[in-house]
Amino acid sequence: MKKLIGMALIFVLAAGLSGCGGSKFLDNGQIKNTIDQTNEVDRYIIAIGLGAPSKDATDSTQRKATSRNAAIVAAQYDLVGRIKGVKIEGGVTIQKAIETDSKISAIVNDSIQGAETVKTEWTADDGCVVTMRVDKDKLAKQLNMKFQ
User: Fold this and answer.
1) How many domains would you assign to the chain?
2) For position 42, what pLDDT does the model report?
3) Packed helices 136-143 and 102-113: angle between N→C axes, nearest 10 degrees
4) I need a surface site. Which of 1, 35, 85, 105 has the fewest CB within 10 A?
5) pLDDT grade, residue 29 (50/70/90)?
6) 148 belongs to a structural domain
7) What is the pLDDT of residues 104-126, one digit of tens each?
8) What residues make up the domain containing 103?
9) Burial letters for 107-146: b for 16+ Cβ neighbours within 10 Å, e otherwise?
10) Is residue 78 situated within a structural domain?
11) What is the pLDDT of residue 142?
């Protein structure tokens, strides 16, 4: 059993080191000069966040943890703008709808807090890139609205 677990661990490490699946945002541990942030699938609102490690972090684990937290906050901030810009039935944006109904704001905030983290990547200097998404259909149902 220990041998099987050890072999599985080696496989996971090898896959991680070989760059299995590639990265949209990193190249050899560095953030690419161009990042495509378009929604890949019409089903999701996708956002990324970039985070830098805390200057007070003393080891790699702390640096990665603090940069990940910063990247999540940045991605959530990006999601706010993207969601508020979505057009709903009647041609108005969610931002305009929020101005007339405070319940919508609460639902949007909840959806951002519950956004799915799709991918977490670290740079060579322990910075972090986080990709998050919100399901449009689920959000539309929660808001009881139709998106254009």
Assistant:
1) 1
2) 77
3) 150
4) 1
5) confident
6) no
7) 999 999 999 999 999 999 999 99
8) 2-143
9) bbeebbeebeeeebbbbeebbbbbbbbbbbeebeeebebe
10) yes
11) 94
Q: Output the CA–CA distances (angstroms, integers) from residue 69 to 22, 120, 122, in the order listed.
A: 23, 11, 12
The answer to whether residue 135 sits within a structural domain is yes
Would 43 be classed as within a structural domain? yes
- Both tokens of 14, joined, read 């090898």
Does residue 23 register a pLDDT over 70?
yes
